[in-house]
Write a structure and sequence with these properties.
The chain is an all-alpha fold. It has nine helices and no strands.
């Protein structure tokens, strides 16, 4: 008989749906008004077209699902919802910085942050449009 205890899921270690929803709420509020992100006219237009409450709901669903919670994400794929936004690598860095700041504000432990960033990082190729490097002249 094994005495090994099962490690709680990331979802459980983050505090479940209510804690995740609180972080998502703050995070979405910040990215929706971030001047560096809204400098991209396609992102700015999307931020004003999509109702914030619905966006927060879908992101909460997604985070809950990918961290092991019982919720199921019902939105579009990351590629489908971002392909038309022409998001750059530098915009991705700004997005990640805002995410990190919010996680720090909510005192999410570093180990859980690392797991979250691994999950978020796995979506980068579906979101960021890679541009060829400029040739030196």
């Amino acid at each position: 008989m094994s005495t090994e205890t099962k490690k709680p899921s990331l979802y459980e270690r983050l505090g479940g749906v209510y804690a995740i929803a609180a972080v998502v709420d703050t995070f979405i509020d910040r990215i929706m008004v971030a001047p560096e992100l809204n400098a991209n006219p396609l992102v700015d237009e999307a931020h004003h077209r999509v109702p914030k409450a619905g966006f927060k709901y879908l992101v909460t669903e997604m985070v809950c699902q990918v961290t092991g919670g019982p919720q199921r994400y019902t939105g579009k794929t990351m590629q489908e919802s971002h392909k038309h936004l022409n998001i750059s690598a530098s915009e991705w860095v700004v997005f990640a910085g805002i995410f990190k700041a919010v996680l720090d504000e909510y005192k999410v432990p570093e180990a859980e942050q690392a797991e979250l960033f691994a999950i978020v990082g796995s979506t980068r190729s579906d979101i960021v449009v890679e541009r060829p490097a400029a040739k030196a002249g």
